[in-house]
Amino acid sequence: xxxxxxxxxxxxxxxxxxxxxxxxxxxxxxxxxxxxxxxxxxxxxxxxxxxxxxxxxxxxxxxxxxxxxxxxxxxxxxxxxxxxxxxxxxxxxxxxxxxxxxxxxxxxxxxxxxxxxxxxxxxxxxxxxxxxxxxxxxxxxxxxxxxxxxxxxxxxxxxxxxxxxxxxxxxxxxxxxxxxxxxxxxxxxxxxxxxxxxxxxxx
Length: 203
Fold this sequence. Notes:
The protein has helices spanning 3-21, 25-39, 43-47, 64-72, 147-160, and strands spanning 50-52, 76-82, 90-94, 101-103, 109-111, 126-129, 133-134, 140-141, 168-172, 193-195, 200-202. By secondary structure, it is α/β, with parallel strands linked by helices. The chain has a single domain (3-202), classed as NagB/RpiA/CoA transferase-like (Rossmann fold, 3-Layer(aba) Sandwich), CATH 3.40.50. The protein starts with a helix and ends with a strand.
């Protein structure tokens, strides 16, 4: 990666993470409720049976109200888990009210690994991805680990080849995480839609 671009991306991460970390508890809670209302109106969500979510960390917009809605609608909810053997990759484990959670190396809670609870990625209907920042072209800036870019690469390649794609990826963020432009790299996977508490962007 070009040194200047790396520094730019790191500066953007720091800037936006600070913005979302400074949101009050009330603002965070209201944003989570408003985001849930946005999500449950999406056709891809309404029709989905298997949905990957995340547990908010570092000021990320919370999906807790949405997760509760999914459980009430008898939709199967999954959480990403860092793959124990394939570096930089994710597994998706079934997440229920009774699921035992453990902290991973980033101190993010994830389900305790059990092979019987793993869902193959190609069987997910919707993948909701967190992000640090995004721009009006659908470019997503993550934390820098590349987990979601690697996960979505097969979906992206199918889309480029105009093949039928089953998965609907959705990025979610606070409104303050929108930037004018994000310096992207060739491995960055743009998202087809990003939803905030007040807006829905699609490309």
